[in-house]
Structure prediction request, 490 residues.
Amino acid sequence: MHFWREQKRGSNAFLHNYRPDYFKEAKAAGIQYLRYGPDLLPSDSKDFLIGDLDNFTHINQKDLATLRSILDDAYNNGIGIVLTMFELPGHRYGNPREVETDCRLWQDEQFWFQSFEFWKQLAEALKDHPAIVAYNPINEPVAAYAYGFEDPGRRFTRWLDNTRGTTADLNLFNKLMVTSIREADKLTPIMLDGYFWADPKGLPYMEAIEDPNILYAFHNPAPWIFSSLEGNKGKYSYPAAMPKYWNGPAVPWTLNDLETFLDPVVLFMEKNRIQDYQIVASEFWCNRRIHGCAEYFNDLISLYNKNNWHWGFWQFRADGSYTGLDYELGDAPDSGLYIVKSHKKGIDPDKLKSRSPNPVWNVLSAALKEEEITDAADTRTLPVPALEEEINRLITALHNEEWIVQDAAALDLAEMGSKAYGAVPHLLVLLEHEEWIVRRSSIYALSKIGALQDRMIRNAIRKLKKDPEEHVRIEANLALGLLRIDKRAQ
Prediction:
């Protein structure tokens, strides 16, 4: 438990492929530990490490060698690893908002015993590895969701009492899991997630375990309907316009409002005499394009630091084509060129991403390094004649026959802000472009340039709130939402 005696600041990694420089980059960013889920790594078996989630028997030794190599690299770069699993026998990982959640683990005891055996074998194999600072047996258990519960309440409390000792009992699962791991590894800390996808509100329903090397984790406290772009849709921003209740009207929040979401954590600690170094805010996130993301992170981290809790944001330099939680990319939408190329077979999307300082990343970077927050660098420092020439070149590109060129020009003009106001009439025309990506980037550019002060442009964008393409509708809401925030600030 020595590693955790002092507050640790880190991130998460849930990667499809291993990149040789990944841990070196993480170390340079100031990351002290990564909660690492290897489930997505390629394997010659059906499922990495486990072999077959439908019937586990033994760990795939080739996969284990791959994992050892990754852990070696982490250790050589000074990164501690919290080894977690997003999948266990009887539980194939999936976002419940996208696919049907696999709940067999919480319905059939054979999968409990297979999961315990898997972790016992894994702990036996890795117990002496110096990179491992904790085991996190399962990410965001869905024991309650499997039986129709997404929030606590009287019905849930009654259900909890009635299901003690059954396959729905997460507390029993955790106890038996700890017992199984301890048969192989007596000392490595074990990090446990609670009910409701490890939401803070699930912690009071967890039972503390009599083991000095247990950590208790919780995830993002803010409502999903704010943090996710698909839920938010430009309706909410922190702290000026936050949901009064689920999908409710927008109301201002204070730091105290945010802190109330952490009250269940404090309640759990007081009830069970848990020390501050045993609490890990192991995952917090907000789509980088949501207004107030930087302010949300700044306030949330300040609360974690005040309580001396460990924390880790989700996630550091994610691979794959999705970029919503890659905070070094700023608040711009993905370019059309990126969208087209990143989905081509054999293309590594990470090589297409252009990372740079920006308000959201600056908050995280400063917190990781315990430094003062710096402003994002001005990417446009051209002399006035050269800047005017560049703006004229981009305006010409807006009329190019290739939509990818038009889209790129709109995004470049957005970076110039009000200096590119001369491009407004040309961008206004593109709001009716047949390609939705161009309509989206044109809305974004008009917003960043400051053109929404013009009523005619506001009305044109309001019409796009009914666009047939959801991405365009969200962009219109984001632009109009930003205008409302600016008016409140004046």
